[in-house]
Amino acid sequence: MTNEEMERAIEFLLKNQANFEARLEQTIERLDQTIEQVNQTSSQLGMVIETQNEFMQVVLQHITAQGEINASVRDSLRHLNGRVDNLEVQLGTVIETQNGFMQATLQHIAAQGEINASVRDSLHMLTSTVARLLNEGHNGKS
Known about the structure:
Order of helices and strands: H
Distance between the termini: 189 Å
Structural class: mainly alpha
Largest sheet: none
Number of helices: 1
Number of strands: 0
Shape: rod-shaped
């Protein structure tokens, strides 16, 4: 290899070395930017995870509270169903008593109707007798 070829080879190597260093510097800068972006993303992801955990705690508290409310409602419904059952029994008793009372009242009304008819007949007969006696008393029959 001649001196000139050697110089060109060295110049070529130095040029490639300079290009490599420039590209390496660009790559390092992009890597630094990427690292910064990853750090920011990690920070944001940490905040999202923290927010998600807080949200899950709130949801769990609401689920627990809702479970307690549901249990209370179930107990109230059981109690209410028992009271409704008791009221149905009492209402049945009242209806039976009322039906008996109405039946007795209808019988009394019918009996009173018969008594009224008998009294009417007796009054009619009494009125006829009094009229006849008055008539005979005026006519001189005693």
